[in-house]
Structure formats: structure tokens, C-alpha cells
Design brief:
It contains 13 helices and 19 strands. By secondary structure, the protein is α/β, with parallel strands linked by helices. The chain is globular. The structure holds S-adenosyl-L-homocysteine (SAH), iron/sulfur cluster and FE3-S4 cluster. FE3-S4 cluster binds next to helix 1 and helix 5.
């Protein structure tokens, strides 16, 4: 029996898919590359913007024929879309060929749901909102990467930024016990993992039942043998603590890199977004980070065209981008999400204005990225090798401590390099990557 998983969402979604793959493999299923040839296909959805919604419904349509030709084929839908009752209704009404629908907090039950479907032939639906005991004790994720791993530290989100669907699809924020996280990281290290990415919608609000905060967790993970690099995402500018910032000084494995979503550079828009910081305090945080780690790289997320955004507000966003000088940025056009407060705001920004602002912002961000990357020319960077270029198997790719993508050549074979630290001299710099060669 063979399975395939299609994943649309963020790293948390990707990690859910790794866990689902683990559950299926424990049931004896084997992975297959083609979703149309599998016996069980799982679509792990995202709902953060409208285009994610559209892609999902398009994909569902394509499975109608598969199901008609092979009635035993099992189609499953999970992730953030079915956490919204309107989506489940729509699936039931328009896409009757979907066998199993389960929620972001029902993953551990998936094997039972699948058994039930296989035994009874009935449609199975299991979606709960606030599971008090999400446990990863029985999870044996099938990792996408051999040498690096995603590790959940919190689930859900309590921040309710007015544009965002996540608090509705992932439920209330819960922190895993620090001891559970550390046990998992130790197991990963024993399995050859050298780099961990600690995941939460807002890692800075981590607080476990024993009172440990995020800085405590970083310090604990920093002590685990075998782990060479620690990353985390995402930080919320309102909650990042002095203790956390100090970890950049004291924890040698903590990468000098942070994703610090700014969303907007305008105080009035930040207020309407319910972000609980202003541009001055954001810039102050950036200063503190740079003082703690002068070589820190900073990336961000920005939304343009939030309801009520004026030209002046947008100029403030361009201004903050230029002041911070982001190494990279993810830029989005605001997408109304049903059920969120902002979807009811009436002062929408016209599409053409959104697109024009978006293009201007991307130009500014790219110009800055290129400028920042040029600073690396001629330098020697420590890179952990992660993969081989798809087009050219003599080119290895990896990341610097600051998360810069580096494509490089080496006299050694890829097998000798994977998961290892390699010293690379940077010979060429581009907007989204660096190029170089290994120096011995
Ligand atoms: N918890 C993280 C990630 C949230 S989703 C955080 O707080 O940063 C990732 C990004 O998607 C957000 O940072 C935001 O920039 C963007 N986003 C979320 N909702 C959106 C919406 N309705 N329209 C456009 N972009 C959105
Ligand atoms: Fe969404 Fe805000 Fe929570 Fe991030 S912090 S997931 S943007 S509500
Ligand atoms: Fe998307 Fe859900 Fe992640 S909405 S961004 S998959 S938390």
C-alpha cells in the first residue's frame, strides 16, 4: 500500500506532514511520488491567504476521476482549511469524493480514522478546536531532511492579529514541556540531526507548565551534544525578551539569524492590525539584537494594502525596510479571511493600488537584499551542506549560520559533505543566494 502527502502551508504544516507520514509508515504504507498513483493521498492545507484556498479546491477537483476509476482510493484532507466549518460544509456538499477530513489537532487519531474508513467504507470527519492534550509521544516523523529537523515548541496562537486566520485554525496557544522538547532533540541528535528549528507561531510567548520561558529552552537545547545549530521561528516583536536577546551572546549554537515580522511600518496600521508594538519599539528591538550579535541577519514579513493603508502609511513601511536593511523579506498583499476582524473593515485598498505598492516594496526589498549579500563577497563562511543542485550535481547547496543560501563547488563528493560544516569562500553574490567554492 502506498501513500502521498501534498503540503501547502508553513513549516508547522510541513512538520504535521512529517508526522502523518510517520503514522502511515508505521501502518505499513510506503511513500510514492505520484499523488494519483497512491492508495492513500493526504492533502495538508493552508488557509492563510486566498490563493492557498483556491489551490486547494482546484486540487480536490482533480481527484474526482481518480476516485471514479479506483473506488478503493482514499482521499484525506487535513490542515488549516477544515478547521473552518464553512470549508467542511463545502467539502461535504461539492466534493463528496473526499473520504476523510481531520483537523490540525486530530493528527494522532489519523490511523484510527483510516482504519474506520477502510472497515466501514463510510465518510469520516474528525475536527476539534481546542484539544487539551496534543501529544507527540507516539510520533515518529519521516523527516524531509536527514541532518536538520523541525521541532514544535508551541501549538496555536493567542495573538489575534486582525488579518490572521491562524488563531482560528490552530486553536489556543499551548507550550510543550521543556523536558519533552529536549528529549526529542536528544533523540534527533542521536539520529544524526545537527540543526534544529524550534517552531511556534510566537516562540517568545513560550511558557511551559514548570514556568520555563523561551530563553530557558534555548539554553537547555544549547547543551545537547551533537546539535550544532539552533534556529527558531517565529518571533513576535511585542514579546521578545531581554533574556532571549542575551542568548545570542551566551549560546554558542544559536544561529545569528532572526525572522522578525514587521507587517507594516505605520503605527496606525500596526494598531489596526492588533500587533501591540510601534515602529519605535520595533527599531529599538532591532538595535538590541544588533548590539548582542553584530553579524545577525534579519528577515521579515510585510503585508501591503491592509484596509485603511494610505500612501503615507505605505511610505512608512518603505522607510522601516530601509532603516532595518532586511536580509530578506516575504511580502504579501492583504487577503481578507472570513471570520477575522479585518475582513469586516470597509476601507479596502483598491487592487491596483495594492499591486503597485507591492511591486515598489519588492523592488526596495530586493535592492537591500542584494546590497547585504554583496558584503559577503570575498569572505569565507561556515556552511552546513544540505543538498545537491538539481541542475548540476557538482554544485552543493547549504546555509550559513545567518541562513544565507550558498551554492558552492568542492573537490569532495556530496556524500562526504552532507550535514557537515564546510568553509566556503564567497565568489559571487546574488539577490537570493551566494556562490562560492570550498576552501580547505
Ligand atoms: N505566526 C507567524 C506567522 C503567521 S502567517 C507570525 O506571527 O509572523 C505568516 C505571514 O503571513 C504573516 O507574518 C503575515 O505577514 C502573512 N499573513 C497572515 N495573514 C495574512 C492575510 N490575511 N493576508 C496577507 N498576508 C497574511
Ligand atoms: Fe497570526 Fe498574529 Fe498569531 Fe502570527 S502572531 S499567527 S500573524 S495571529
Ligand atoms: Fe497556513 Fe495554517 Fe500555517 S493557515 S500558514 S498552514 S498555520
Amino acid at each position: 500500500m502506498r501513500y502521498h502527502i501534498i503540503t501547502y502551508g508553513c513549516q508547522m504544516n510541513e512538520h504535521d506532514s512529517e508526522n502523518i507520514a510517520g503514522l502511515l509508515e508505521a501502518m505499513g504504507y510506503e511513500h510514492v511520488d505520484d499523488p494519483y498513483k497512491a492508495d492513500v493521498t493526504v492533502i495538508n492545507t493552508c488557509s492563510v491567504r486566498d490563493n492557498a484556498d483556491k489551490r486547494f479546491f482546484g486540487t480536490l477537483g482533480q481527484f474526482k476521476k481518480v476516485k471514479k476509476n479506483r473506488p478503493d482510493f482514499v482521499l484525506c484532507v487535513c490542515g488549516c482549511m477544515p478547521q473552518q466549518p464553512r470549508v467542511v460544509e463545502e467539502i461535504n456538499k461539492r466534493f463528496s469524493w473526499v473520504d476523510i477530513v481531520f483537523g490540525t489537532q486530530n493528527i494522532a487519531e489519523f490511523p484510527e480514522l483510516l482504519e474506520k474508513r477502510l472497515k466501514t467504507g463510510l465518510r469520516v470527519r474528525a475536527i476539534i478546536d481546542n484539544n487539551p492534550d496534543i501529544s507527540e509521544a507516539d510520533m515518529k516523523p519521516v523527516r524531509m531532511h536527514r541532518h536538520k529537523a523541525l521541532v514544535n515548541i508551541t501549538y496555536g496562537c493567542n495573538n489575534f492579529c486582525t488579518y490572521c486566520i491562524v488563531p482560528y485554525t490552530r486553536g489556543r496557544e499551548k507550550s510543550r514541556m521543556m523536558s519533552d522538547v529536549c528529549d526529542e532533540v536528544r533523540r534527533l541528535a542521536a539520529d544524526g540531526v545537527v540543526e534544529v528549528m524550534l517552531l511556534g507561531q510566537n516562540v517568545d510567548s513560550y511558557r511551559d507548565a514548570a514556568g520555563h520561558r523561551f530563553a530557558d529552552l534555548i539554553k537547555a537545547v544549547n547543551e545537547i551534544d551533537g546539535i550544532e545549530r539552533i534556529r527558531f521561528m517565529t518571533s513576535h516583536p511585542k514579546d521578545i525578551s531581554e533574556e532571549m536577546i542575551d542568548c545570542f551572546r551566551t549560546c554558542d549554537k544559536l544561529c545569528h539569524n532572526i525572522h522578525l515580522p514587521v507587517q507594516s511600518g505605520s503605527d496606525s496600521i500596526l494598531k489596526r492590525m492588533n500587533r501591540h508594538y510601534d515602529r519605535a519599539s520595533y527599531l529599538e528591538t532591532v538595535d538590541k539584537l544588533r548590539k548582542a550579535a553584530p553579524d545577525i541577519t534579519i528577515s521579515t514579513d510585510v503585508i501591503v494594502g491592509f484596509p485603511g493603508e494610505t500612501d503615507e502609511d505605505f511610505e512608512q513601511t518603505l522607510d522601516i525596510a530601509r532603516r532595518v536593511e532586511y536580509d530578506s523579506a516575504f511580502t504579501f498583499i492583504y487577503s481578507p479571511r472570513e471570520g477575522t476582524p479585518a475582513a469586516k473593515f470597509t476601507d479596502k485598498v483598491p487592487d491596483d493600488v495594492c499591486h503597485e505598492r507591492f511591486d515598489r516594496l519588492v523592488d526596495v526589498m530586493n535592492e537591500i537584499s542584494l546590497k547585504k549579500n554583496r558584503e559577503y563577497k570575498g569572505k569565507v563562511c561556515e556552511v552546513i551542506a544540505e543538498g545537491v543542485s538539481r541542475n548540476d550535481d557538482t554544485v552543493i547547496s547549504g546555509r550559513t549560520d545567518g541562513f544565507k543560501l550558498v551554492n558552492f563547488t568542492s573537490e569532495r563528493s556530496p556524500e562526504q559533505l552532507m550535514g557537515r560544516k564546510v568553509m566556503v569562500e564567497i565568489t559571487e553574490t546574488k539577490t537570493f543566494s551566494l556562490e562560492g567554492r570550498e576552501v580547505l
